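User: Here's a chain of 321 residues. Predict its fold as tokens.
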Amino acid sequence: MEILKELSCIGIIPVVKINDAEKAVPLAKALAKGGLAAAEITFRTDAAEQAIKNIATECPDVLVGAGTVLTIEQAERALKAGAKFIVSPGFNPKVVKWCLDNGVTPLPGCTTPSEIEQALELGLKVVKFFPAEQSGGLDKIKAMSAPYGGIKFMPTGGVSLENVNNYLAAKCIIACGGSFMVKESFIDGENWDEITKLTEKAVETMLGLSVGHIGINHENADEAKKTADMLSLLTGKPIERESEKGMFVTSEFEVMKSMGRGRCGHIAVLTNSVDRAVYHLSKRGIKFDEETATFNDDGTRKFIYLAEEFGGFGVHLIQRK
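Assistant: Prediction complete.
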């Protein structure tokens, strides 16, 4: 998978300051166990280069990159160690050009229109926005991206469980960098279980999976009407809307007028991002029927069925509005 696309699907990229390279592999495994098989190892310590090498060698399924890269010399060391992407706090055209010439994805920091124009001039489509919250946050990113429709951002700095979905909901955001699940004290204390727990919470929050409604199949419209009337009587709610396919009693029940997918019907699962949900759930072994996918105007999925049925029900993901 192309690096930028994978970063987008992962959604949250752990930003790691590590003091002991020997702890890099157990850290990477703890992150992957929690659902985020990625790490940006910052060049703020002498252990960074070896930490990247250890992860790249022993955890090939973890997408590892280098952060706080300030010079070409650091970029070269990071690439040789196995970094798949290079992140810088600011825009250094020499470092960016070196990365492009050497086939590694650069993500330079850009917080002004002038820096964005320099990035576009070099052919970049994604840049870092750092420090995000202190530089104006999502409002500034949206304002700056308006004149530059082709640019996307990876904000880092002040991103937390409380605001990460505000960022990720914006179409101009490709992913977010965050350190809240990899605090330095957790790593130094080898508290891998806590890192995994916080990572799981981050993925859960980002995906926002929840049951949207249950669809109930029927042989014909008359049988469907009987069920809809009974559900209306039970819930005290009217039939909210009706189409050629079926009737909604509240938002929780879709009473189908024919036998749709699933022996009994279907279960709709809401998510903040179908693309990210497909990526993360696929890592858990769940398979999807790509032929059922429908798409938003920007090419991202908005709907897809799982390949298998469960308990007589087909299951589909649908983007939360």
